[in-house]
């Protein structure tokens, strides 16, 4: 340390000084010296020997007696017999390793202090510790919680470590050494370059001693050379959240003067922020202005007072520097692996909080040169992660340097600091920030919010302009810096445009519109319309064409531009809207006419755009052409959704065209014949590790229950017989190969709507037909998904998996349909193996393995699961799914008691009862026989079954 008190070191990195002008160095020195003059009366650790203290009456629960102190050899051995080895924490793990920590321990549930006066003695010790650690004014809020009883025998030790927080509010550790003679076992503590050593052996023959230290202090227990060391450990907890007391004004005067000197120079000469490394490190959970320790407390208090007075913002955060690079396979003299060639080096402040504990921002990049102190985040790393040789790669290591720092930033420059945490991957945070400001900047008197908004606009627009200029001149092979890897998205720019229109900055508003990459949000269209009122009509059309063409790669976006932007222009009051603007309606019609044929991807995202166009310019021919195109390029699910949206638009009065009802009924009758519950399924990987497996999931192109419900309601509105829809759905159930997914995802919500009556839509006359339809749908589902028990439990047969007629698929299907064959081995090439994999990847009951021996390798397929167990699993699924349609009472009332009971008893697959029986005798008692499996599968319905049922065990 130099005479001026500003620390320097031999391992100073260029980053510490190269960016600092003499003016910045002067400001840093002033602030550093001012803070250094503010100190607490305590230290990071304290120790004291005590004589004549009360015997604690140490009771060992498993010995069922109090042991006398000092310990006798017999009592020592007896305690060891009931102890367990002490663990230590490593990251998220708790480990036992006697090469790191060798010690015996008992938890608080395994011993007691019986002396009635011990609590009062502990209060005196805590008060003494408060003075020693510099928190005397907080003593009334400090609680000492018993933690462990530790016994160190000869050669016992604990390597250097930090104490992990054991409870909220824990800030320090207290150790009381009980009378038991020993030698060695010194406590060696190191913190911020300062070292202390406490010897408990000096009072160990008949006396007591205590030691206390802050939780983040590195400390070790040296080996015991003779005897035994017996200690009680306590966690020191600071209760309450009262404010940190202010430092004396005489000590903070220099700090105020330093900040006054800095503030007017911050924007032009810098620095625009400073970081001050605290003496202690704080965990993320304990990070707060109120949890400061030692000298950090008065310094934080002084900074809070001075910053509030002089117009600075103060934040707190944990900083981590991560340096990754190659290394030798041996450690240096300081015990860590030294990096030879740096591969990556980054420093971030992980989370930034204010004085109220609110999260202000996170993942903020910081530079070492921004610290007031020098050589921070340098030297010996806080932690390291070493990777040995792996394959052809050499050894590598990642060094971590961590500390807790205060951020000091002038209020007028606060936006620039918080903006640092915004990047290409978290732009939604910037959007939220801007949206919070939009209502505030409407008030012209709110200069603070407007200034904050303008700062953000400046930063965003400058970044995007620089991004575009860079990529205009960039050449292949250039290394792109992180700054130019992203630009701020159109969503952010549209929010900015709204704000700029609000404050009347027309020049920046126009610039922002031009900086959009593809799509200006509809929220901006009224602003654009207002800005064009005074322009020539040619300029207006040019502006609309410009915005329309920006979205040329996104037809659905262009539909929004053509419809909503023109609507915003037409919405301008007549007295202000130029008469030529009536021609914009023709412009809209022309653009939309060209867009309709482009909407042919068959995706659900296009449907709203299609319906928008057809609603504005409806003809039966266009409607028919649209449906024809959808049936060619899209799944039945998308086509049904399209018809449902058209029907909704017509019913609400938005779409008006003669002959729509006839068009709807004909289209509906054609579509319902082709309902397919399996379209839209895709195989997705189950996990990134282990054998490659996939799971079937529905894409957005699949048939959706909401669309079926809409079609159902529209049939009622248009007086279309529901029997057509019923027949189509029953046909789809019979043809489906994926009822395990289709029934709960598509059919259950639809059937639930019918059973609940789609309130106000189902008449009593229609209820009987609906009841028959729902019952038949459920029976078909059970029959095809659960399958007949008599054949399923005795067979290994599966449904064929491939419609391909190649030799391999023929062999595969024969294997799957076999009632007896459990394993198939195919010695085939990799391409043929992949062909088979594609066929069976959706079937989770087939295990697929490759035997890596011979040439070619052998594909081994194994049928999984006992047939009886698998049948029962399907039965459980079926009953669960049926129960989710409605309550037992509602279902029984809707289906009829006899039919409901037979359905829930699974008669159709247990007794092989024909489906037609349910409808030939729908009004009679079918003599349902309940089985024990039914109680397990359907416990809710058990009470409603007849008391004289025959029980058949299916387990």
From TrEMBL:
Chain residue ranges for the region called Disordered: 1-20, 929-955
PROSITE patterns reported in the protein's UniProt record: FE2OG_OXY (PS51471)
Residues annotated as domain Fe2OG dioxygenase: 143-238
Record Gene3D superfamilies: q2cbj1_9rhob like domain
InterPro entries cross-referenced by the UniProt entry: Oxoglu/Fe-dep_dioxygenase_dom
PANTHER family: FE2OG DIOXYGENASE DOMAIN-CONTAINING PROTEIN, MYND-TYPE DOMAIN-CONTAINING PROTEIN
Name of the protein this chain belongs to: Fe2OG dioxygenase domain-containing protein
């Amino acid at each position: 340390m130099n005479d001026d008190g500003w620390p320097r070191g031999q391992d100073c990195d260029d980053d510490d000084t190269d960016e600092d002008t003499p003016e910045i160095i002067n400001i840093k020195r002033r602030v550093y010296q001012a803070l250094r003059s503010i100190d607490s009366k305590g230290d990071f650790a304290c120790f004291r020997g005590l004589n004549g203290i009360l015997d604690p009456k140490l009771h060992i629960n498993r010995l069922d007696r109090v042991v006398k102190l000092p310990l006798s050899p017999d009592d020592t051995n007896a305690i060891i017999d009931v102890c367990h080895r002490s663990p230590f924490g490593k990251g998220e793990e708790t480990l036992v390793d006697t090469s790191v920590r060798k010690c015996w321990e008992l938890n608080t549930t395994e011993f007691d202090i019986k002396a009635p006066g011990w609590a009062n003695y502990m209060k005196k010790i805590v008060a003494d510790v408060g003075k020693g650690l510099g928190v005397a004014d907080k003593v009334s809020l400090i609680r000492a919680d018993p933690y462990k009883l530790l016994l160190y025998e000869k050669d016992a030790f604990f390597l250097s470590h930090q104490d992990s927080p054991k409870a909220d509010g824990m800030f320090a550790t207290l150790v009381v050494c009980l009378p038991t003679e020993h030698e060695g076992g010194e406590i060696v503590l190191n913190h911020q370059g300062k070292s202390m050593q406490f010897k408990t052996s000096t009072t160990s023959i008949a006396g007591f001693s205590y030691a206390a230290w802050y939780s983040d202090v590195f400390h070790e227990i040296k080996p015991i050379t003779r005897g035994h060391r017996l200690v009680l450990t306590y966690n020191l907890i600071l209760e309450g959240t009262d404010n940190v007391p202010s430092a004396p004004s005489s000590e903070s005067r220099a700090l105020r003067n330093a900040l006054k000197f800095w503030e007017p120079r911050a924007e032009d000469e810098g620095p625009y922020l400073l970081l001050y490394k605290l003496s202690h490190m704080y965990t993320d959970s304990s990070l707060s202005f109120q949890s400061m320790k030692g000298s950090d407390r008065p310094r934080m208090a002084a900074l809070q007072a001075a910053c509030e007075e002089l117009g600075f913002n103060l934040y707190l955060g944990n900083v981590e520097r991560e340096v990754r690079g190659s290394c030798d396979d041996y450690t240096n003299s300081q015990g860590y692996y030294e990096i030879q060639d740096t591969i990556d080096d980054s420093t971030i402040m992980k989370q930034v909080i204010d004085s109220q504990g609110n999260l202000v921002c996170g993942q903020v990049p910081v530079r070492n040169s921004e610290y007031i102190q020098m050589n921070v985040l340098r030297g010996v790393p806080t932690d390291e992660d070493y990777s040995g040789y792996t394959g052809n790669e050499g050894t590598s290591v990642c060094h971590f340097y961590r500390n807790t720092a205060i951020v000091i930033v002038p209020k007028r420059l606060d936006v620039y600091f918080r903006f640092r945490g915004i990047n290409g991957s978290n732009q939604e945070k910037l959007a939220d920030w801007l949206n919070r400001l939009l209502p505030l900047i409407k008030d012209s008197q709110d200069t603070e919010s407007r200034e904050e908004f303008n700062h953000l606009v400046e930063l965003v627009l400058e970044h995007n302009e620089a991004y575009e200029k860079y990529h205009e001149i960039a050449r292949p092979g250039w290394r792109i810096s992180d700054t130019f890897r992203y630009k701020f998205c159109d969503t952010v720019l549209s929010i900015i445009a709204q704000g700029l229109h609000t404050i009347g900055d027309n020049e920046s508003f126009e610039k922002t519109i031009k900086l959009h990459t593809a799509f200006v949000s509809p929220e901006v269209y009224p602003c654009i319309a207002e800005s064009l009122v005074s322009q020539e009509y040619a300029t207006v059309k040019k502006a609309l064409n410009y915005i329309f063409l920006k979205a040329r790669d996104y037809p659905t976006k262009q539909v929004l531009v053509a419809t909503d932007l023109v609507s915003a222009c037409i919405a301008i009051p007549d007295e202000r809207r130029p008469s030529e603007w009536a021609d914009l309606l023709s412009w809209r019609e022309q653009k939309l006419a060209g867009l309709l044929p482009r909407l042919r991807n068959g995706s659900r995202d296009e449907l709203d755009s299609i319906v928008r166009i057809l609603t504005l310019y409806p003809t039966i021919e266009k409607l028919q052409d649209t449906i024809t195109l959808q049936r060619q390029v899209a799944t039945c699910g998308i086509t049904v959704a399209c018809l449902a949206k058209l029907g909704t638009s017509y019913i609400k009065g938005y779409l008006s065209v003669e002959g729509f009802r006839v068009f709807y009924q004909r289209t509906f009758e054609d579509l319902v014949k082709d309902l397919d519950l399996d379209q839209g399924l895709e195989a997705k990987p189950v996990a990134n590790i282990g054998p490659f497996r996939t799971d079937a999931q529905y894409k957005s192109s699949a048939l959706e229950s909401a669309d079926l419900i809409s079609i159902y309601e529209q049939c009622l509105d248009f007086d279309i017989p529901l029997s057509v829809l019923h027949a189509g759905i029953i046909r789809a159930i019979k043809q489906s190969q994926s009822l395990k997914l289709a029934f709960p995802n598509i059919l259950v919500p639809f059937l639930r709507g019918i059973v609940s009556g789609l309130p106000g839509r189902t008449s009593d006359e229609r209820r009987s037909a609906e009841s028959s339809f729902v019952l038949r749908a459920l029976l078909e589902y059970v029959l095809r998904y659960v399958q007949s028990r008599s054949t399923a439990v005795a067979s290994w047969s599966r449904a064929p998996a491939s419609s391909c007629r190649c030799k391999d698929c023929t062999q595969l299907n024969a294997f799957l349909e076999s009632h007896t064959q459990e394993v198939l081995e195919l010695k085939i090439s990799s391409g043929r193996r992949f062909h088979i994999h594609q066929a069976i990847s959706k079937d989770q009951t087939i295990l697929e393995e490759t035997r890596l021996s011979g040439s070619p390798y052998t594909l081994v397929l194994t049928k999984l699961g006992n047939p009886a167990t698998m049948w029962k699993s399907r039965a459980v699924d079926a009953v669960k799914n049926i129960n989710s349609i409605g309550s037992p009472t509602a279902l029984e009332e809707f289906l009829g008691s006899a039919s409901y009971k037979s359905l829930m008893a699974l008669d159709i697959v247990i007794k092989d009862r024909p489906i037609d029986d349910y409808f030939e005798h729908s009004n009679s008692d079918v003599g349902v026989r309940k089985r024990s499996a039914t109680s397990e599968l359907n416990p809710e319905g058990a009470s409603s079954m007849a008391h004289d049922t025959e029980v058949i065990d299916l387990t």
